[in-house]
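User: structure tokens for 2-hydroxy-6-oxonona-2,4-dienedioate hydrolase, please.
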Amino acid sequence: MSNDLARTIWAELADLDFSLSTVDAAGVPTRSLRAGDGAEAVIFLHGTSGHLEAFVRNLRPHAERYSCHAIDMLGHGYTGKPDHPYEIPRYRDHLLAYMDAVGVDRAHIVGESLGGWVGGRTAIDDPDRIASLQLLCAGGTVANPEVMERIRTSTRRAVETDDVELTRRRMQLLMADPGNATEELVTVRHEIYHRPDFVANIDNLLCLQEIETRLRNILEPGDLARITVPTLIVWGRDNPFGDVPEATAMHDAIPGSELVLLDDCGHWPQHEQADRYNELSLGFLGKHPAEVPVEGAPG
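Assistant: Done. Predicted tokens:
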């Protein structure tokens, strides 16, 4: 079992000044945890069926230098769930609407799994809004039917059956060490999974695990080649949802990108290898500061 079991969500946040609120992002109530008052913003985006608690081990060190935002993405967690399929452009638009709502013109994006897919799409379509990009076991570059079925089946079973063991198994899928799926995280996710609005919305949320929809949204090598912002790719060697060649292909396609492979790490590098990841992230962010507009400059 992991030695990190004592690292509870509250212990991670206890000595951090933060706010937890609901932001109106173009009509979608969006749960947001904000910490830090730095001049540059970092926005953390979780994966499929996830929630902002995926980043509690990262907020304190980042908030010492940056203005941090961890959000529940469109249709996820305690954020609003409009009744339509959640394809990548809708996630992109929700992210940009959130940024507009909180007055962030340009942000560093940290995207895990689905969050990396959304971050990559936004960096391609709206590069002026993105200062840098981190892809943590990012999805969206391949369509692997076996992996898609595993995500779809494990999530649906955990949502449609009121058995906490199924939620626990879904969380353990993410980890190289099952002990990192702490009972606290399992409880948080189980509560979310069994909210009536989440249950009613599950087909919309899982639409990207259907082959036709996924192929319509996938990021091809030519798309990745259009990413011009500084990019860091972090990948677990034990990632159950994508092998290392998937990460190296992203690295090869994105000009100037950096790639770091972590041992003893599954699909949540920011959580399983939090100390190492925080060091990598802060070093990367420090090398690529956002351009801060000069008062009175044209444009």
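User: Anything notable?

Assistant: Residues 16-287 form a domain with the Rossmann fold fold (CATH 3.40.50.1820).
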